[in-house]
Please model this.
Amino acid sequence: MIRPATPEDAGAVAPLLILAMGHIAGIFARSNNHADAIPFFHHFFETGNNQYGYDNTLVFEDETGIVGSVTGYDGALLHQLRKPVLDLIRETQPDFNPSDETEAGEYYIDCVNVRPDHQGRGIGKKLIQAFCEKAASSGYARVGLIVDQVNPEAKRLYEKLGFKIVGERDFMGHQYHHMVFETLTMSDNK
Model:
């Protein structure tokens, strides 16, 4: 079942965010062990009103608990939602200044992740489709995301779901494909 997340889901979702963030989690935690960033994501998820907050997240829950999540928001709100995160990071990294990964005019998928023991079951696909449906029902014509160019499997999944490459982004030391899904074509993809 896919449902809106609640603050009580933080313990299950914070480790999932690490899966999606990869090297970025290490930058946030100032550690090569990405799991060191779990408390960071737990705090922001539980607090809400930021780019990793429960209020911007859908979760996939089965009989074993939460096994996947998708987090995203209106790209026009990036700076507002990113501010609390940057404020905390800049306490130890004052020059931390990442480029923008999204923009106004798109509903942005920041993180999508599925527990490793549940991957390959279509859960990620269902989460992405639910996010796109939420975007369409909220009046957004485009859903955007970035996918690391060293992750061709994710790129193929997004392409199968109807996302198209519209550009490239340099973000936090990696090169990404900027991909967009036009929600107006959702009825064609069902």
User: Anything to note?
Assistant: The CA atoms of residues 7 and 120 lie 27 Å apart. The chain is about 35% helix and 25% strand. Strands lie at 2-4, 57-62, 65-74, 107-114, 142-148, 164-171, 174-182.
